[in-house]
Each structure stands twice: as C-alpha cells, then as structure tokens.
Amino acid sequence: MSGRLGNLARGAARRALASRGLRLARLPGPLARRPGAEMRIDLDFALALRTALAKDFYFVQIGAFDGRMFDPIYPWVRAYGWRGLLVEPQPRYFSDLVENYSGADGLDFRRIAVGVRNETKTFYTVADGPGIPAGVGMLASFDRETLLSHRRSIPDLESLLRSEEIECVALNDLLGGVEADHIDLLQIDVEGYDHELIRVLDLERFAPSIVHFEHRHLTPAQHEASIGRLVDHGYRVCLEKDDTLACLPADLSLGEDGAALRRPASG
Asked: Global pTM?
C-alpha cells in the first residue's frame, strides 16, 4: 500500500473508531511484546498509592520551571508536605520556583542543569517578547531542533532563540547526593532530552518507585528505548497523552490497611 493510500486508510480507520468512542493509537514495541507490563492508571492515582505507603515521601523533579505552570506535583507537595529536590537551570524562573514554594519545609532547590555526565553543554532558551505566548519560557532544551518544532505556534521563533554554555551535573551524581534512603518519585520534563536521562539512570542503585517523564518530543525509537529499559528493570508502564508513567509493581498495592488519597486541590 502506497504512503498516500496508507494515510487515507488510517484516517478512515480513525474516523470509524472515533464514531464509536474509540481511538487508534500506536503501542510501543516493548509493551506489544510484553503486554503484562502495561498499566491503565494515571499519575495522580500512582501518587495517591505511593503517598499512602511511604512514611517519608521524597521526590526529585528535573525541569521544575516555576513550580506552578502545568506542574503535575505542586499541589501534592503542598498538601502532603513531601520532601524533595527541585532542579531548574533558568535564573529568571528559578527565583519564581523558590517563591512559589515559600513556607514549605524539606525542599532543596538547585539552579543547575542535569545531563548524562559532568560537562559543559549548549543550552537553548526562547527570549521573551511582545506577542509571545504565556509559558514560552518552558521551552528550554539542549536540543535546538526540539525548540524549533514549535514554529507554528510562535512567530519568528528562530530569531528568538538564545544559547549559552552551561555546566551540567551528571544525573546519577545528583541522585547520589540526595538526603533520602529512597526516591519515591523521579519527575523529568526536559524538552526532548528525557530519553537521555532515562538511558543513563542507574536503576540498580536508585530504583525510584515512580518514574514520570515527558515523551511528546521523543522519536518513536527514543521512546521505545526508554520504555524498554524501564520494563527490563521490572517497571509497569502507562502511556499518558504527553507523558509516560512507570511504577514498580510493589508500589501498586496498598495492602489491607491502606487507603488511597484524594488529589489535592490546585490552589
């Protein structure tokens, strides 16, 4: 079947499924080969279970931005007093991050970049300007092409790109320095670099109960490699719209006396 005919056939299939409340979705190879590794839950459910189980919940958030905008864990941290490490390299948003968590105890803030090794890398950001959509500062990455993929929504994006050389701390060195016996949640949102961090994450040493990372900017091969590595280390995986959720099976059961918690209000 030619490419054009194939696209038409897929489009017709999608419309037929949509009319019945269904949708056609691509299943990554590791989950197709090992269907028992796929979950049907979301991040809030997994966090509720883990919060009920953990005596002292500890998280690491890489790419924390300002701590509020589109942040999936801010209300949880506020409501349940989690301890954790929040990492954000951009000075203009790092100060907002610290301010937004004002009054919260047990949090460590680091204005650094995280990479696969200790090195200097080129870091790309988007400058503010008239007519620039809110939240454009979230577009920051080691990958210039990832930022340019947003051309349609940001006029003259290429002229707004800025670059600087920035010192990176190796992911495993960062995790090895946290003040916790166990990491309950590793939250990653680094605009297309997520798969590199999953690739080097020492799962034998750290084994976070929950790993949550953005996959929207990854290629299918990069996403599959990330999922495959997590599945090979015993994680069960759930695909969300833009993110991937991975949990260790032992953290999916509350036991006889456990009770799931409600998601806290955003506030």
From this structure: 0.83
